[in-house]
Amino acid sequence: MNTKICIVIGLLVIAQVSLAVERIVPTDASGNLKYNDTHYRVENNRIIPTDAAGNLKYDQTHYRTEGKLTIPTDASGNRKWTETHYRTEGNNIVPVDASGNRKWTDVHYRIEGNKTVPVDSSGNRLWNQTNFTIKK
User: Fold this and answer.
1) Using CA atoms in the order 30, 85, 88, 126, what is the torsion angle rounded to 10 degrees?
2) In a 3-state reduction of DSSP, which class is residue 19?
3) Which of 42, 61, 82, 96 is the most exposed place for a label (fewest CB within 10 A)?
4) pLDDT per position as a tens digit, 59-97
5) Is the pTM of this model over 0.85?
6) Closest CA to 8 of 124, 98, 127, 116
7) 3 state DSSP class of 2
């Protein structure tokens, strides 16, 4: 499926990427797959948490995209107002509250190719955080 998406999942952010996105996989900073971490599949502007085999995880936060915003939801699509939302600003992804106010102390992200790189609010890379890679 070709779609323009803004994705944030826990510490994952992949934003405004026009690709044939099917799944998103967690990796360490070296690109090694983290099998036990949550994986995701993308369907119709929804981001669905799964295990490495693709089995749905109902109890975890799901997401939907609305323009440059990524909105946390439950498995039924109901918005979770108190969880962190994200918005894209160029190649940067910034955490915001439900009203759009920037959360300076939360992890920010920078898009590098088909990966997201966790950074602090000044753009310094956070090496100990999970990276994510878009897979077609």
Assistant:
1) -30
2) strand
3) 82
4) 888 888 887 888 889 988 899 988 888 888 888 888 899
5) no
6) 116
7) strand
Burial string for 87-102 (b: 16+ CB within 10 Å, else e) reads bbeeebbbbbeeeeee
Which residues constitute the domain of residue 22? 2-135
Residue 125 main-chain phi, psi, to 5 deg:
-65, 140
Q: Which two tokens stand for residue 67?
A: 């323009």
Tokens standing for residue 76: 């039924």
Pairing of β 23-27 and β 115-119: unpaired
For residue 45, how many other CB atoms are within 10 A of its CB?
15
Report which of 13, 11, 30 is spatially closest to residue 134, judged by C-alpha positions.
13
Q: How many domains does the chain have?
A: 1
Note whether 11 and 106 are within 8 A (CB): no
